[in-house]
Every structure is written in C-alpha cells, then in structure tokens.
Amino acid sequence: MSTATSHPFAIDRDDRPTRPIVRSHDATRVLPLLGRICYAAIFILAAPKHFTPALVQVAAAHGVPFADLAVPLSGVFAAAGGLSVLFGYKAKTGALLLVLFLVPVTLFIHPPWVASQMENFMKNVGLLGGALLFGYFGAGPLSADAHIARTHVEMRQIDEDDAF
Questions:
Q1: pLDDT tens string 99-124
Q2: pTM score, whole prediction
Q3: Cβ(54)–Cβ(71) under 8 Å?
Q4: Mind listing the pLDDT tens digit for each residue in 128-139?
Q5: How many CB atoms lie within 10 A of CB 25?
Q6: Is the dihedral angle over the CA atoms 57, 59, 62, 65 positive or is it negative?
Q7: Residue 63 Rama label (left phi>0; alpha psi -120 to 50; beta)
Q8: Any idea what DSSP says for residue 12?
Q9: Minimal CB count within 10 Å: which of 12, 96, 100, 113?
Q10: 7, pLDDT greater than 70
Q11: Residue 90 has what DSSP assignment?
C-alpha cells in the first residue's frame, strides 16, 4: 500500500487474498470521465448548428452584434471547448472556451429578464458552473492531461536516476 509520502501518481495495490471485482478507487477514477462525456456532449452536439444561416438570423434578431461572425465563432468555442473537456486535453483551457461561449449566449439569447427564457437561463447557469469546476479541478485521472503529467513525472525520474 502506498503512503501519503509516496509517488503522487502511484496506484494503490490491493494485497488482500480475495480482491473485490471493482475497487472503490477504480470507480472514483471513472466518474470524472463519465461526467466529462455527459457534459461535453451538449456542446459538441450543439456546435454544428452555429454554422447555419438560421441561427445567425435568430442571434441577429436577439441583438447579437456582428452575428455573422459571432455565431460561427461561438460554434468554434463550443466545439473546441467540448472536445477539450471530453478528451481531457488542455481541459482547463477548454473550460475557459466554454465560459467564453456560455456567458454571451446566456445574456443575449436566454436573458433572465425574459420570463419565457428563465428555464434556458438556469440551464446555462448550471453549465457555466460545470465549466468553472472543470476549469478549477481539471479533467480527472483518466484524461490526456493526467497521462501527460504522469509521463512528465516519469521522464523526470529517469533523468534524475541518470544523474547519479
């Protein structure tokens, strides 16, 4: 069993004679991945609509400035941010892209002062909360970011071992 002072990416070994089928630390490693899949799907599936003339017209009718440019750009932010969070690659940057997508979309298209938009406004506030959480905590242990970090640590250890 590892201790608090052992390698930060060390995997705890279960040395009991009868091992459970699913260890609790295995399940908790998968939960952020499942959350990322569910969360990112919203943005990835919605992004293609941002490249249609119909959505540009809707945005222009809501007073979005430079709708011809802003709507496709928001589609790029939604797609890039969603894919980044999905794969956990540069997830904190992807989360920032989603914040940059959600804030103007929420204020222009689903403003809280329009009663019929309150449900969509609250949905977007919840999505904004999720983006802020990914931006702070990152993508979790089963992600490209975590793999890169582990590889970097392993390479540093090899370099340190070679120095002696």
A1: 999 999 999 999 999 999 999 999 99
A2: 0.79
A3: no
A4: 999 999 999 999
A5: 11
A6: negative
A7: left
A8: P
A9: 113
A10: no
A11: S
68, 56 contact by CB (below 8 A):
yes
Residues sharing a CB contact under 8 Å with residue 75, sequence separation 6 or more, in sequence order: 47, 48, 49, 50, 51
Indicate the residue type of 87: F
The type of residue at 151 is T
Task: Tell me 18's DSSP state.
Answer: S
Q: Which residues, in sequence order, are CB contacts of 146 under 8 Å at separation 6+?
A: 88, 138, 139, 140
Within 13 Å and on the Cβ side, how many CA atoms surround 94? 26
Report how far Cα 104 is from the mean position of its chain's Cα atoms: 18
C-alpha 161/C-alpha 24 separation (Å) is 33
- Return the DSSP state at 52: S
End-to-end C-alpha distance for the chain, whole angstroms: 28
pLDDT at residue 136 in the model: 96
Cα 127 → chain centroid: 10
DSSP codes of every residue in 105-158: HHHHHS-TTSGGGHHHHHHHHHHHHHHHHHHHH-S-SSSHHHHHHHHHHHHHHH
User: How far apart are alpha carbons 98 and 100 in whole angstroms?
Assistant: 5
Q: Helices 53-61 and 91-109: crossing angle, nearest 10°?
A: 60
